[in-house]
Specification:
This protein is mostly beta strands. The protein has one domain (about 5-145). It has 1 helix and 9 strands, in the order E-E-E-E-E-H-E-E-E-E. The chain has one helix at about 75-90; strands spanning about 5-15, 25-30, 40-45, 50-55, 65, 95-105, 110-120, 125-135, 140-145. Strands 1, 2, 3, 4, 5, 6, 7, 8 and 9 form a 9-stranded antiparallel β-sheet that branches. A hairpin with an 8-residue loop joins strand 2 and strand 3. The radius of gyration is 17 Å and the shape is globular. It starts with 6 loop residues before the first strand and ends with a strand.
Length: about 150
Amino acid sequence: MSYKQEIALAMVTGNDVSTEGLSDNWEYLYIDTNTTALPRRYYFHANSNSVGIDSSTSMYEGLWVITLSWFDSDSAVSIADNNGGSQFKSNNPNYTISAMLVGSVYPKIATDWYISYSRISNDGYEKYLMLVIDANTGEVKSRSTD
């Protein structure tokens, strides 16, 4: 019996994303798509000073490889800004933006950007705005707030 490893990108995440869609730290999750072996994930993280790697057999339920074309985080943040993000930023000083690109197969094959704006108040209450954006077409698929 032969074993062929098939590694594919499944998720990209960044915290403290700028309004231009840039981050000092991006994390990349690749998974082994070979169904004859235990699923294995490979986690890479990169910043301006280093690159790290980790691997394990744990998986995220419902996560699958990114198979469709997708646009960069700068375009995703721009779309999010035009759909409520700019207003959130003006109403909530000291906000942070996070971005996550995910491939999924349920309810259909898709590649989506999750752009989240958040601010923690002095009393610990979080205000947030999250948009799910089709990473191929730019369609805003959902929008949720606190």
